[in-house]
Amino acid sequence: HGLNDSAKCCAEGVADTWAAGLPRALLAVPEAAVRTPYSTDDDPGFTWLSAKGPCPYDIRRLHGEHSREFERSVRCLHRDVRASCRGLHQWLDATLARHGLTDNELILAGFSQGSILAALVGAERNVRGVIVCGGVPCAGIFRLSGLMAKRTSTPFCAVNGTRDYIVQRAPLEAMLKHCECEWHWSKGVGHDFPDQWYDTGLAWMQGRLGS
Questions:
Q1: Is residue 197 part of a domain?
Q2: pLDDT on residue 124
Q3: CB 132 within 8 A of CB 119
Q4: Which of 8-17, 44-53, 55-64, 201-210 is predicted most confidently?
């Protein structure tokens, strides 16, 4: 799930579309451990990244891309991303072991902030496939290519809108250049998750999983 979202909210589209289209698959939706300070008890939201202080996006705007402040903020973000990836690896290890499954049977999907973890962890584990939607966000500003596995057999499906202001197309394409990737760009769509993206992701997964 994305920033300030929850497993419950994220699972609604998954249950409606993907569960019906993948009747023999196990679908599991993890939830980030850190609650966002601006969410409410009635509608709690969570974040995968808990670094203190301003994010690199804001620091870049205030101090410039070549400032020491920006460099520190990127290093801090990378430490936080690595820590979150370790937590997701542990959760996946336990979940797969519990159900007698392997990475070769695993497809990860992530939206926005969640797509950062899906891409990095999926590439590291050489999983069956990874779907990123509304992401990977700020791949260039956050220098996320430097966190990607140097070699991976994981195929990707990237689904984004042409008007998504946080998805930097060229840096994202560079980040995934060494991966087999199916690209979908929805004309006029911003940072959103239209219903048809569920269908796009489902069709891709069905193709990867076969029978």
A1: yes
A2: 96
A3: yes
A4: 201-210
| Exposure of 64 in the CB half-sphere (CA atoms within 13 A) | 3
Question: Which domain does 27 fall in, by range?
Answer: 7-209
β 181-186/156-161 pair status: parallel
Strand order in the sheet with 181-186: 107-111, 129-133, 156-161, 181-186
Residue with tokens 């939607």: 133
Tokens of 17: 């579309």
- CATH of residue 203: 3.40.50.1820
Chain segment 99-149, per-residue pLDDT in tens: 999 999 999 999 999 999 999 999 999 999 999 999 899 898 889 999 999
* Phi (first) and psi of residue 5, to 5 degrees: -110, 180
Domain count, the chain: 1
Quick one: 211 exposed, middle or buried, by C-beta within 10 A (0-12, 13-18, 19+)? exposed
Calculate mean pLDDT across residues 61-77: 83
**Which residues 6+ apart lie within 8 Å of 84 measured at CB?**
32, 48, 49, 117
Alpha helices in the chain (DSSP H): 7-13, 19-21, 56-63, 68-99, 113-125, 169-175, 195-209
Domain membership of residue 62 (yes or no) is yes
Instruction: Identify which has the larger pLDDT, 12 or 178.
Output: 178
> Is 2 domain-assigned?
no
CB 119 within 8 A of CB 148: yes
